[in-house]
Design the sequence.
């Protein structure tokens, strides 16, 4: 999984932290409905959505069958 990209504005302000994205993962393990539930501002919330949208998950199962589930994902932004 590839990490998020800093915006120029966030980098200039040395903004770091963790955004939280609520995501529905469908039966195929693909993210379908994404919503930022904890944002950081300076465009990092959008970067969080773009990053998680590219990820692939193992689908949840119920009685051996894949099912859609809603999960929360933390996306960390750290400057090194």
Sequence:
């Amino acid at each position: 999984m590839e990490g998020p990209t800093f915006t120029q504005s966030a980098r200039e302000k040395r903004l770091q932290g963790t955004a939280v994205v609520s995501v529905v993962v469908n039966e195929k393990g693909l993210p379908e409905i994404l919503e930022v539930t904890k944002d950081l501002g300076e465009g990092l919330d959008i970067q969080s959505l773009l990053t998680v949208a590219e990820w692939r998950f193992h689908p949840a199962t119920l009685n051996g069958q894949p099912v859609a589930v809603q999960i929360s994902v933390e996306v960390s932004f750290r400057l090194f």
Notes: Residues 8-77 form a domain with the Fusion Protein Consisting Of Minor Coat Protein, Glycine Rich Linker, Tola, And A His Tag; Chain: A; Domain 2 fold (CATH 3.30.1150.10). The longest strand covers residues 17-25. Residues 16 and 79 are 7 Å apart (CA to CA). The helical segments are 8-12, 44-54.
